[in-house]
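Exam revision sheet. Question 4 asks you to relate a sequence to its structure. Input first:
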Amino acid sequence: MKKQPLHITTSHNATLWLLASLLLAFAPHTLRLPIAISVLCLLFGLWRFTIERRATATLPHKLVRTLLLVATLVIIYLHYNTLLGREAGIALLAAMLSLKLLEMRSVRDYVVVILLGYFLAITLVLYSQTLPMAAYMIAVAFMLTATLIELNLQQEKSALTRNLKLTAKLFMQAAPVMLILFFLFPRIPGPLWSLPDDAHSGTTGISDKMSMGSISNLSQSDKIAFRVAFDGDIIDNNLSYWRGPVLWNTDGKNWYAGNATRGISYYRPQGKPINYTVTLEPHNQKWLYGLDLPAMAPAQAVISNDFQLVTQSKVQELQRYKMTSYSKYETGPLTPDDRQRALQLPSHRNSRAVSLGQQWQQQLHDPEAIVAQALNYFNQQPFSYTLKPPLLGNNPVDEFLFNTQQGFCEHYAASFTVLMRAAGIPARVVTGYQGGDFNPVGGYLIVRQRDAHAWAEVWLANKGWVRVDPTAAVAPERVELGAESAFAELFNRQSTLQFDNDFLSSHWLKLRYGWDTLNNGWNQWVIGYDSLKQSQLLSRFGIDSIKQMAVIMAIAIIAALTILLLLSIRRDRKQHDPISSAYHRFCQKISAIGIQRQSYEGPVDFAQRIIKQRPDLAPQVLQINDLYIALKYRPRHTQHQLKHLQQQIRRLKF
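Answer key, structure tokens:
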């Protein structure tokens, strides 16, 4: 089978620039793509590199490329069971882009591949929109733009400095237009198109289902769940309960949220309100987090009958909302339906725990005394608080209470709720986050996934729903100091950087807080710059309509482009005619002694007039004039002659 000869109309250097740029764009995707696809893409790129290195370059035959295409499509389909969606679509894009390298020969082919490289880089935002990722994407775009420059200049020897300088110049010229478009281009609420179903897969966070062990796994993650800026003083850690899904239903092993009824239940707040602003990371669920208990709901949510902040759509973008909550409150009466839900227990599981709860009911009668008895039981028995509890079977509550006695917050919350229901006390499990890490540099609270927590609520007459955290009876430091302090040894072992020196440790901590503050600013003013924030900003300048916005945006862009064009023309004139620039400096120096060159006056006449008025300058003026005429009107001159002219002008003294 004959290979097709390679007749390319571009330089060897352009191909090398292109391969380096594509490798940079492709590198982050190797962490997520199937190994087979990553290997194929790298092999295709290496194949093209080998072709470029050989003197008699040939491309693979069309039949070979067709077979490679079919094999690649089969591999992607077998791995994803589809060719659509985020994961399969990016794998397909990367593979097709790599295959295109094996048939690339014309300038048009190169341009197509470069444009696909830009698109491959843009897909990185589907995984991360952080500041480091944005910087990395700019670096990729910079390299691809430099490749375009190399492709168009078509010089045999690659001028690395020239390409990088020209690319940097283009980026600086584009920056004003980019800023104008960013601030003034109309922001439409919500996405312009529907993303594929798997676009937000892999997002970590609390779910509406809990089993014994689910939250302990989540609590080993250092990812940020949300940040909170308080209007006043930050609240105590033991009051920082960030309410999420409320779990009513259980099958004895798992707990489920059920269907929350929209419409807030009555409660009477006590004490001072707590005002704060939450910046919530995307978690792909239909709820927000607020301090227990929320007194109001932001515009994008409502408060359910169990005081949960429920949204109409999944939180798939950064959310920023203001909240007011109360840490002390008294809720209203319990409806018959809610009472039945809050006492439901399966009949075929955890019989020993149910018997213990019934025994307490017969002995104590008073619900508050039964609650105290359960907390004493957790405190006095040899229970331990651990991130790695033993696995439990079909009767997890019985096994935990009477056998293993090692668990995380969900073990204690679920077991306590079962005991309360068995004792005839309405109870439910509440999941969310507890505590947080205060950032002194930014002045806000950082709540991470490791702060995930579960607690219980019991309904008591004349008080309503009362929060009870059985974890505090076993590990009070978890509630009072937070997850990081409770498991400091574990988190220190997991940390990549550890310092024995207190000075280094404190400065490393300040650096971490400073970096998080920078990321928070990025989230607030770049990622979080939505239609609401845009309208608030533009309204300060009297811009209230899209029509006004469009007119001002057009004027600003035209003005920016005009200024850039004039500066470029002026700069190019100076750069392309250094001889005239040097003579212009000579005329400026002469004008300082009162001798102005006229617009009609040539260099010889001007020199004679200078000598007539200042005979003492004759040797210097004649030498400069002769050098200028020789350089200006001779077809060839050396760089040494130009430097000599510039030197003589600098030495000119009066």
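Marking note for examiners. Residues 166 and 172 are 10 Å apart (CA to CA).
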